[in-house]
Design a protein that fits this description.
The chain has 56 residues and is mainly alpha-helical. It has 2 helices and no strands. 48% of the residues lie in helices and 0% in strands. The protein is elongated, with a radius of gyration of 17 Å.
């Protein structure tokens, strides 16, 4: 029986090289995926920034 607040199971396919790279850091794969998704969501949901035009 899991302790705490169990999460709903999800099945996804990941590049085996990414999995190996995460495991090499010692981080849990679930934690790494959740962190990456949070960063991605934060980036795509923030208001567009006004950028100064760059000279060509």
């Amino acid at each position: 029986m899991p302790r705490g607040d169990p999460k709903k199971a999800v099945s996804i396919r990941l590049d085996p090289k990414l999995i190996e790279a995460v495991r090499a850091t010692g981080e849990e794969l679930t934690t790494a995926v959740e962190s990456g998704l949070r960063l991605w969501l934060k980036r795509i949901t923030k208001k567009p920034s006004i950028r100064k035009p760059t000279p060509d």
